[in-house]
Design goal:
Largest sheet: none
Oligomer: single chain
Structural class: mainly alpha
């Protein structure tokens, strides 16, 4: 039996072969404002690399307070696009950075955040191409 649910707009979630969801735009798409969706994606694509670079520089300088602040800021951006894995990694960075010293785990988390961001960035850029922006 066909229901209204069968005709819902599909979520624009990028899925990897192992079904790991990188992000989910459904929350901002619910607003039914494509310009807003495009704006949020562009803000993420523009600002996140800058914040990640600052985090990497702080890591290299051993500035754990700055690392913690950048991770917290990035969690907000990741939350908008529901990038749950990225948010989990950033939470781990915050926790480790609050300890006040750079350790192997913190270095690994920052590296993984950069890798996760690259995957998300690729997917978001493709999404913009699909919707013609």
């Amino acid at each position: 039996m066909m229901t209204e649910r069968n005709f819902e707009k599909p979520h624009n979630t990028l899925t990897l072969p192992d079904d790991e969801n990188l992000y989910d735009l459904s929350m901002i798409e619910e607003l039914d404002d494509e310009e807003y969706v495009v704006e949020m994606i562009n803000v993420f694509l523009k600002e996140t690399p800058v914040d990640l670079r600052e985090m990497r520089e702080a890591l290299n300088a051993g500035k754990t307070e700055t690392i913690c602040k950048q991770a917290h800021k990035l969690k907000n951006s990741a939350g908008v696009i529901q990038a749950n894995r990225l948010m989990d990694l950033l939470t781990g960075i915050e926790k480790n950075a609050k300890a006040g010293k750079v350790n192997v785990e913190l270095i690994a988390l920052v590296t993984e955040v950069h890798q996760q961001h690259q995957k998300i960035e690729y997917g978001l850029k493709n999404h913009l191409k699909i919707i013609g922006q």
